[in-house]
Amino acid sequence: MLTRLIRTGLSVTILCAIVLSACMPAPSSPTATSNTPPSDEVPTAVIQRTPERGEELPTDGSIELIFDRAMAQESVEAAFRLNPTVAGSFEWPNARTIRFVPKQELKRDTSFEVTVDASAMTADGGSLTTDYGFQFRTVGYLQVTQVIPAPNTEDVESASTITVIFNRPVVPLHAIAILIQPIFHSL
After folding, report:
1. Higher model confidence: residue 48 or residue 171?
2. Are residues 133 and 161 in the same domain?
3. Rg for the chain (alpha carbons), in Å?
4. What is the residue-averaged pLDDT of the chain?
5. What domain count does the chain have?
6. DSSP 8-state code for residue 40
7. What's the predicted TM-score (pTM) here?
8. Can you tell me the distance from the alpha carbon of 56 to that of 115, in angstroms, rounded to the nearest whole number?
9. Between residues 37 and 18, which one has the greater pLDDT?
10. CATH code of the domain covering residue 104
11. Tens-digit pLDDT profile for residues 131-148
12. Rounded to 5 degrees, what are φ and ψ at 63?
């Protein structure tokens, strides 16, 4: 009797599973609901850029924008602005990435503004909903930001360590001296 009860229960469970699976729409079915709106309803966006926010661009660097979808190259190039104006050329490593390469080094310690206006088109005919823009600076000059002990400090021991802090990483001269020293000994 227990075996018969288990068989009946198992049969009912399998039958319920079959009925429920038949009632569910297939994943590729057009009636299936999706949280992803059609591509023509999702605004085009820049998902990555170089230089990043707060990053200084080297004077020989390039500006790169990566969009979330393939873009119409000519329209993006026509919509691209760099202020102050710099001569350069465009490269497209792939259909979503534009790179502006200046023809000559950028001026050091200078602020630039990049704009891609809303006329930039996607490959499937969409467009930016608004202008996209950002500002960046090129690398500045090496500057001393702090000296320890501070200037005009009194009663400093003559054997104390003097520390100089710069606004960017600096290669210590003793490392260069170690590399050059064997060259002079061989002469």
Report:
1. 48
2. no
3. 32
4. 82
5. 2
6. G
7. 0.62
8. 17
9. 18
10. 2.60.40.3710
11. 999 999 999 888 888 988
12. -105, 130
